[in-house]
Amino acid sequence: PEWKCVRLHYFHLLRLSQTDASNLVRSAKMYIWFTVLAGLAILSLSFLKTRSPYLGEDWAYMLRSIKLGIRLVKYKKNKPFYSILDCFLDAVKRHPSKIFIRFEGRDYSYEEVDKQSNKVARALQAEAQLKEGDTVALFMANEPSFVWTWLGLAKLGCPAALLNFNIRSKSLLHCFSCCRAKVIVVSPDLQDAVEEVLPMLREQGVSVYLLSGNCSVQGINSLSDKISQASDQPLSWALRANVHIRSTAVYIYTSGTTGLPKAAVVTHERVWASSFIQAACGVTAEDIIYINLPLYHSAGFLIGTIGAIERGITVILRRKFSASQFWDDCRKHNVTVMQYIGETMRYLCNTPKKDNEKNHEVRIAIGNGVRSDIWSEFLNRFGDIKVRELYAATEGNIGFINYTSKIGAVGRINFIHKFFFPYTLIKFDIEKEEPVRNSEGLCIEAARGETGLLVGRVTKRSPFVGYANNPQQTEKKRLRDVLKKGDLYFNTGDLLRVDHENFVYFQDRVGDTFRWKGENVATSEVADIVTMAHCILEANVYGVKVEGHEGRIGMAAVTLKEGEEFDCSDTYKQVVNYLPAYARPRFIRIQPFLEMTGTFKMRKVKLVEEGFNPAHIKDPLYFLDPEKKTYVPLTEEIYRAIASREIKL
Predict the structure, then answer these.
(1) Mode of pairing for the β-strands spanning 207-210 and 106-109
(2) pTM of the predicted protein model
């Protein structure tokens, strides 16, 4: 067609001047060359697409990452410091009437939340005499007051410790004490849990404030009445003048390899980095996010709520997850972004099928821990939703995002990611529970496609701050002399694998932690509680896989005191009174003795592999039956009912 066009133009040249004819010929040549180059470009792109099918997504993600990185560098250099609170205040100025939180039929605009946080800040300032740097513990459920109480504390320059509302007794006291807070703010429905430990709190001189108009319990102060009387006028920036990028913003609790939960120190730098995850996943200012994950976790608070502030969007907040109401909520509130953990996806896929399952506006799902088969089923049932699977740890310095549609991967690596967050996978001895080292004492890198322990190099750009007032546990997460003498890495405690296409896959956890119902469980903490039963001498706690479930459920191999029989009722009483539901060992295995390693560590690998099938295990087995409120002998009938999901775990 191009040459026919040239011939036609040539016949017209007879009527044109020589100059016009020359220009026309030149134009024709340029058109031909442009067409040829465009064709070559299309062929090249087609070739690249075949060889690198994720090239477009890689570049889009890298460009977004560079833009977000430039913003973070800018905030680091800003004087005065520009925090996420300042970002919220700017959002209030831009769209004061826009809905920030929708909760149980009530809407709260950005301006309303701002004013309410001013009132909370003033009330706490007057009653608790708070000043910049004082830590305040929040023992609250998912509710709007959680958000504006945190904002109020931020306006005073006070870090907040976000307590898990499932914990009780010893764990609650420990979590409260390790952040050295002198003030705790409590939801009314958690008053009973606080009353249990109130004498110890009073001994420590702790002030307890209940979000209620009145309280008759001595030692617990009502706060809602003071909040209602306080002014909603803005507070002076001078109250937080010394807050900077490396200041502590919040403490978020995480179960590590040993002991009770630890308070991970989350700086303002980490808050900003976490808030960018939504933007990196493609969330825009027009989106609406649905949050039903606990706000005491980094997923619900940092990625969900703080990320919503960074985007300036609306949050549909729910007290807890409901599979039966999930999609109705999404349709009702025009939700476009959802958060999930692996259990969320599985519960949704287990709901009865409906004709209108794909009738919704959700386009992005952000979360972690979903199995490949559940992922595929979720997409088949509920439509083309962009699942953005993450890998990260609250206290860690390395994370991944699967920004493609590759099912099963927790992330994808590229040169920009590795430049800013240097890491490596190293060979790990599962039996000895330690990295494999060469003759020079250095770790050995895992080969491409080989499972290895993920470690992130500690640098100025990717620091590891550690745990509040817990130098021993902080040091345990540091790994030295990894690739060269004197270097320092953060030990994630997770085994991952990178394939030939640069996709990252989570393989397993190592050490003494397992994950169930989206929560990390420290086995030594559970063992301490189990051995409180009068009949039990020693306990070896571990997590076992259950078909059709994400994570691992708790199991304990125990030995009995001489002359004692297993007391089902007393053991049940101890674990229920002192452990949250997700941490309770659902299976007990009675052994004559516990196997130890050469360094006197309890062996778990074989126990984990053997699981809880009574047909294959000669030791007596017991099952925690919540209906009978005791442990009962684990029969093959119960085992089959668990496998067929007749018994829900």
Answers:
(1) unpaired
(2) 0.84
